């Protein structure tokens, strides 16, 4: 199957079967989403959603968080991964929002990655979710699912190379939701250790599934 056909079939399936797909992080405004995404690095959304209610109650705005100490923020987020670093990043991020961006979350990649704790993936999530831009954030789920399905080649060994190939092949209008399609599929179906292939609607176009079944010996055939 040619790659263009694979993209077409997989995207058609998602449009029909997953018309609604969105972030599972809880937030009320762009600032809260930015905070939540920073916290989600190497941490589950479920864990982040457990700590953000207390955090947002204590520091609901950039002004409030900028006036805080990292130690005070740490008290609210101590159960997430790398809480010391993230507490420093959150306070520094809030202070830069006030000093450089008038207290508003910027909407460009170049501006977002200037903020402490914000890398390309985090910036792309914010661009996509808040500003509905055609930005593709590549986390471990997107990276894994894209390779297994055959949407990207084996030569794509970095998140940036995967991002570029996905953006090149997915229609621009689909990119924001495609980010969530791939993440949620990886989280609940195409899991890292035990992919639920028998439950996956994408089997007819999945490169890994096709390869595994071609290599599987016929029933009753003795293996050497």
Question: What's the gist of this structure?
Answer:
With 224 residues, the chain is mostly helical.
Topology:
Elements: H1 3-17, H2 30-39, H3 45-58, H4 62-66, H5 70-77, H6 83-101, H7 109-112, H8 120-131, H9 140-149, H10 159-169, H11 175-188, H12 207-215
What does this structure look like?
- By secondary structure, the protein is mainly α.
- It folds into two domains: 98 residues, Endonuclease Iii, domain 2 (Orthogonal Bundle); 102 residues, Endonuclease III, domain 1 (Orthogonal Bundle), CATH 1.10.340.
- Helix content is 58%, strand content 0%.
- The chain starts with a helix and ends in a 9-residue tail after the last helix.
- The relative contact order is 0.12.
- The C terminus is likely disordered.
Keyword list:
2 domains; 224 residues; 58% helix; Endonuclease III, domain 1
| Category from helices, strands and their pairing | mainly alpha
CATH H-tier superfamily of the largest domain: Hypothetical protein, domain 2
What is the helix tally?
A: 12
Number of domains: 2
- Integer-rounded radius of gyration: 20 Å
Average pLDDT number: 94
Shape: elongated
């Amino acid at each position: 199957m040619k790659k263009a056909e694979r993209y077409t079939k997989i995207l058609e399936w998602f449009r029909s079967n997953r018309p609604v797909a969105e972030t599972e992080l809880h937030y009320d405004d762009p600032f809260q989403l930015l905070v939540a995404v920073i916290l989600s690095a190497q941490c589950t959304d479920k864990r982040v959603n457990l700590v953000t209610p207390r955090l947002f109650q204590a520091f609901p705005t950039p002004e409030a968080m900028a006036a805080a100490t990292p130690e005070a923020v740490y008290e609210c987020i101590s159960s997430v991964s790398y809480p010391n670093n993230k507490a420093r990043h959150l306070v520094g991020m809030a202070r830069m929002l006030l000093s450089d961006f008038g207290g508003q979350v910027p909407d460009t990649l170049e501006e977002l990655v200037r903020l402490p704790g914000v890398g390309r993936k985090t910036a792309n999530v914010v661009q996509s979710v808040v500003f509905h831009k055609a930005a593709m954030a590549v986390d471990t789920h997107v990276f894994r699912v894209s390779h297994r399905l055959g949407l990207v080649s084996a030569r794509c060994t970095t998140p940036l190379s995967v991002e570029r190939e996905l953006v090149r092949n997915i229609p621009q209008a689909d990119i924001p939701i495609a980010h969530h399609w791939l993440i949620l599929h990886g989280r609940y179906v195409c899991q890292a250790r035990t992919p639920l292939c028998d439950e996956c609607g994408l089997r007819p176009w999945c490169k890994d599934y096709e390869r595994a079944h071609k290599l599987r010996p016929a029933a009753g055939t003795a293996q050497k």
